[in-house]
Design brief:
Number of domains: 1
Radius of gyration: 22 Å
Number of strands: 11
Order of helices and strands: HEEEHEEEEEEEE
Low-confidence stretches: none
Helix content: 10-25%
Largest sheet: 5 strands, antiparallel
């Protein structure tokens, strides 16, 4: 009985430590520059450097209410420090903020930028935020919306 007491406590500690999760912090997921990606005729964009492929057909439907007029268009994509993806493009009124999930992305926020549509959008990393330039207009964004 006494022997069981001495073995059960270390065994319990080993089991508990084996079940604990491992967290690696801090992590910086930001991409230093935006990626300009051309949509193929199937509705996909691909980034070779980050081994990244994404179907954006539903994004064009959400933005333009047309899921057939996407082939050859470009989207602009950047990732912030905490891992959110920001996506927009020429003639878009919004910036879409996505959070990665297993085998896809979930829309975190849809940020209205301009009713007229963006003319010449470009993203820059301004950690911890993302800067959106459109001609002479500058917007500082985070996953919650426009900071300034």
């Amino acid at each position: 009985m006494n022997l069981q007491k001495y073995f059960s406590t270390p065994l319990l500690l080993i089991i508990i430590s084996a079940c604990s999760s491992l967290t690696l912090k801090p992590a910086d997921y930001s991409w230093p520059i935006e990626n300009v990606l051309k949509v193929d005729n199937k509705g996909f964009v691909e980034e070779q450097r980050y081994s990244f492929t994404l179907k954006v057909k539903a994004l064009f439907y959400e933005e333009f209410k047309d899921s057939t007029n996407f082939s050859g268009k470009e989207i602009r994509l950047i990732r912030d420090k905490v891992g959110f993806y920001y996506i927009t493009g020429k003639d878009f009124k919004n910036v879409y903020v996505f959070e990665p999930e297993e085998n896809g992305m979930d829309l975190e926020n849809k940020i209205m930028v301009t009713e007229a549509g963006l003319v010449s959008p470009a993203f820059n990393q301004k950690s911890p935020n993302i800067e959106l330039l459109d001609n002479s207009n500058k917007y500082l964004l985070n996953n919650k919306g426009i900071v300034r």
